[in-house]
From TrEMBL:
Keyword line: Amino-acid biosynthesis, Hydrolase, Methionine biosynthesis
NCBIfam families: MTA_SAH-Nsdase, PRK05584.1
Top-level EC class as recorded in UniProt: hydrolase
Stored InterPro entries: MTA_SAH_Nsdase (IPR010049), Nucleoside_phosphorylase_d (IPR000845), Nucleoside_phosphorylase_sf (IPR035994)
Protein name, UniProt field: adenosylhomocysteine nucleosidase
GO cellular component: cytosol
Source organism, top-level taxon: Bacteria
Organism: Sphaerotilus hippei
Pfam families: PNP_UDP_1 (PF01048)
The protein's annotated pathway: Amino-acid biosynthesis; L-methionine biosynthesis via salvage pathway; S-methyl-5-thio-alpha-D-ribose 1-phosphate from S-methyl-5'-thioadenosine (hydrolase route): step 1/2
PANTHER family membership: 5'-METHYLTHIOADENOSINE/S-ADENOSYLHOMOCYSTEINE NUCLEOSIDASE, 5'-METHYLTHIOADENOSINE_S-ADENOSYLHOMOCYSTEINE NUCLEOSIDASE
Gene Ontology molecular functions: adenosylhomocysteine nucleosidase activity; methylthioadenosine nucleosidase activity
BP GO annotations: L-methionine salvage from methylthioadenosine; L-methionine salvage from S-adenosylmethionine; nucleoside catabolic process
Length: 262
């Protein structure tokens, strides 16, 4: 059985590259069309991987991380469309809970409920969220991050939000679609394509997880514009810096060192 590791799951190649650049030597394990990078980041055993897009890709990735790579907690980083009022481009969203907005097995089960689980909302780990929130605030407060490119892309003074995140196998890119989601699930802050699937797997396996998203668009008719540029210039840099800052201060590592010295 491999040693317990923190899994960092990146939605985009550029994000993975930014996290990989921070780590030292990593072993690469190729399997199921994915490259799992194992090693250490800030002294913490990690496994880093590109997720792929959509709920099935996320569920497969989460399962493999837990079952083959010793992941005992998972942190997903990626971009998302903002739905909530005041959730702006460049802001960060930490999911407190996640719902599959395209799950609908009515009339057999209530709308959004994952059949046979009795639930529609899958909660993220409060402890991980608290640690990541601290790291996120530290990074967002560093004005040096927000260069001309970020400003040209519409990033102003990014804020951190906590709340409901929706996932579904659809890139939400019309005003009608995002309005419908807002009406159906008014608490939703953001919409993306993977988080709730990862949440369901972690729930089944009893693993703590967190989903951290940078808002790349407002899930409307302009959502596809500048997508790649935004990931490169803003999201990849922000998520790598947050992960690095978080692991640097990781209480888990400090606890181990403290116990080791005793
Ligand atoms: N159309 C884009 C990529 C689509 S995939 C392109 O041209 O490359 C979008 C990825 O970003 C997914 O991983 C998803 O989780 C996230 N995402 C960002 N904004 C989104 C939105 N408005 N709706 C759904 N997913 C979004």
């Amino acid at each position: 059985m491999p040693i317990a590791r923190t899994a960092i799951v990146s939605a985009m190649q550029e994000e993975l590259a930014a996290v990989l650049a921070l780590a030292g030597d990593l072993e690469v394990h190729e399997h199921a069309g994915r490259r799992f990078h194992r090693g250490e980041l800030q002294g913490e055993p990690v496994v880093l991987v590109l997720c792929g897009i959509g709920k099935v890709a996320a569920a497969t990735t989460a399962t493999l991380l837990a079952e083959r790579h010793g992941a005992d907690r998972l942190v997903f980083t990626g971009v998302a469309g903002g739905l909530g009022e005041g959730v702006c481009i460049g802001d960060a969203v930490l999911a407190t809970e996640l719902v599959q907005h395209d799950m609908d097995a009515r009339p057999l089960f209530p709308r959004y409920e994952v059949p046979l689980t009795g639930r529609s909302h899958f909660p993220a780990c409060a402890t991980l969220n608290a640690e990541l929130a601290q790291a996120t605030r530290t990074v967002l407060d560093r004005p040096a991050h927000w260069g001309d490119e970020a400003i040209a892309l519409g990033v102003r003074t990014p804020r951190l939000h906590h709340g409901l995140v929706l996932s579904g196998d659809r890139f939400v890119s019309t005003r009608e679609e995002s309005a419908a989601l807002r009406t159906a699930l008014p608490a939703a802050l953001a919409v993306e394509m993977e988080g709730a699937a990862l949440a369901q797997v972690c729930h089944d396996l009893g693993l703590p997880f967190a989903v951290l998203r940078t808002i790349s668009d407002r899930a409307d008719d302009t959502a596809h514009l500048d997508f790649g540029r935004f990931i490169q210039a803003v999201a990849a840099q922000a998520s790598a810096a947050i992960i690095d800052t978080w692991l640097k201060a990781a209480p888990r590592r400090r606890a181990v060192l403290r116990d080791g010295r005793r």
